[in-house]
Amino acid sequence: MQYFQLMGFGPDGWGRDMLAAAGMTIGVSIVGFVAGVLFGCCGAAAKLSRFGSLRWTAEVYTTVFRGVPDLLVIYLFYFGSSSLITSVASMFGAQGFVGAPAFLTGALAIGVVSGAYQTQVFIGAVEALPRGEIEAARAYGMSSLLLFRRVVLPQAIRFAIPGVANVWQLVLKESALISVVGLIELMRQAQIGAGSTRQPFSFFLTAAALYLLITFVSGIGFQALEKRAMRGVRRPA
């Protein structure tokens, strides 16, 4: 009974705060995920390029951001951008430390990290395409752009969806780390509530349930998307 009062929507309940924090988690995860898709597309294009410098740059990118701890990347982005903003502000007479927007820097850090993983997902999807179809399209006289738009992209999306769904789960978990730079997302709100009420188990249990709910609903969405993308494709018996 005490738990439901604590997580209720009454004057002493924390239900609205927890739901608002869950919305913030979803928001920063979506922004970071979309940014990761863009970084991943650029990284995959660079790795598949015929130019050695682009392939080398993409290899360094994926190696660094898959090897460095995510928390460290968030710290580097936040304090690095904050130092830059503080330096620029001091030129105009401002004094003291000027912090970068926690939402923006956190989402960008998540995007860069997830983009390194999505680069590999997109490369795997392209390499899974039947070589015969690409060769037939080239023999038919398709330009590279037309080949990409009509043959490569539609099929690569089909193969990429399961891997992209896994990266989304990773992004959701990474969003909890952004609390270290002051963003009040689900994990941070649970910590605040636990400290204020001295009921840590109730708040962290609720946070875990909300994370699982978000994961479950998004999993259903990705399954529906994959099913739609695979329409008309014959699967092996």
Could you walk me through the main structural features you see in this protein, from its secondary elements to its overall organization?
By secondary structure, this protein is mainly alpha-helical. It has a domain at 31-185: Orthogonal Bundle (MetI-like fold), CATH 1.10.3720. Helices cover 78% and strands 0% of the residues. The chain is built from nine helices and no strands. Helix 3 crosses helix 5. The longest helix is centred in the first third of the chain and has 33 residues, at 15-47. It is flat, with a radius of gyration of 22 Å. The protein starts with a helix and ends in an 8-residue tail after the last helix.
What is the helix fraction of residues, given as a range? over 70%
How far apart are the first and last residues' alpha carbons, in Å? 52 Å
What Rg do the Cα atoms give?
Answer: 22 Å
Number of separate strands: 0
CATH homology-level superfamily of the domain at 31-185: MetI-like
Mean pLDDT: 88
So, CATH architecture of the domain at 31-185? Orthogonal Bundle
Q: Could you say what the CATH topology of the domain at 31-185 is called?
A: MetI-like fold
Structural class call reads mainly alpha
Runs with pLDDT <50, length 5+? none
What order do the SSEs take from the amino end to the carboxyl end, as H and E? Answer: HHHHHHHHH
| CA-based shape | flat
* H/I helix tally: 9
- Specify the biggest β-sheet: none
CATH domain class name of the domain at 31-185 = Mainly Alpha
